[in-house]
From TrEMBL:
Function, as annotated: Destroys radicals which are normally produced within the cells and which are toxic to biological systems.
Native source species: Huiozyma naganishii (strain ATCC MYA-139 / BCRC 22969 / CBS 8797 / KCTC 17520 / NBRC 10181 / NCYC 3082 / Yp74L-3) (Yeast)
A GO molecular-function descriptor: superoxide dismutase activity
Domain (Manganese/iron superoxide dismutase N-terminal) ranges: 30-116
EC number(s) recorded for this UniProt protein: 1.15.1.1
Record has Lyase as a keyword: no
Swiss-Prot/TrEMBL cofactor(s): Mn(2+)
Keyword Metal-binding tagged: yes
Pfam families for this protein: Sod_Fe_C, Sod_Fe_N
Keyword field: Antioxidant, Manganese, Metal-binding, Oxidoreductase
PANTHER family (UniProt xref): SUPEROXIDE DISMUTASE 2, SUPEROXIDE DISMUTASE [MN], MITOCHONDRIAL
Domain (Manganese/iron superoxide dismutase C-terminal) ranges: 126-228
Protein family (similarity comment): Belongs to the iron/manganese superoxide dismutase family.
Name this polypeptide is given: Superoxide dismutase
Amino acid sequence: MIQGTARTALKTGASRFLSTPRVFQRTKVTLPELDWDFGALEPHISGQINELHYTKHHQTYVNGLNTSVEKMSELTDLLAREPTPQVAREIIALQQNIKFHGGGYTNHCLFWKNLAPEKQGGGQLPEGPLKTAIEKQFGSLDQLKTLTNGKLAGVQGSGWAFIVKNLDNGGKLDVVQTYNQDTVTGNMVPLVAIDAWEHAYYLQYQNRKVDYFKAIWNVINWEEAAKRFESEKILS
Ligand SMILES: [Fe+2]
């Protein structure tokens, strides 16, 4: 139990975090390396959009996640020394930041990896188990695109659509739509993630987001999706 002035010091602003020396350097998340140049997805997604999306928007989520996780670590330490409802409430409030920035970080990592220039195979669904599953469940790739585009068009505000392999349902494919930076976790293995935030298309498509949703299929990296489909684990 913490007594007297020591307890008071722990309760006063940032200084309360300074009493526990860090004994290791925390490794932070960073932007992933891209497999292509910013302009390589043109004309479907402009180089300007990709550059801003990657260097500004994704970087913001990277920074936000690192900051939030560091703060969580400090609060967890604090709770161990000062187990109070006040500290517990601070931890609960911080969870929203971790959910938002953590989702933004992981969703965009998925997004970059599941895009590929046409000259590198973008848009081409290779023969194999994924193609077989798509045709069995949806009839054709075009039907899956139509279903996904319908979910994307239904995003009111900002969100994502994911084509997933649902391990809770025998590994069947599913299309899941989320809001904000909510992501898919657990037994939903994401194969393809499509960003429906305005920052992903507005500079090029303005209010014609349906055209963006149609165009992006030309640069979907189905080879990566097939690799994820054939694995029981999330690869990135
Ligand atoms: Fe985005």
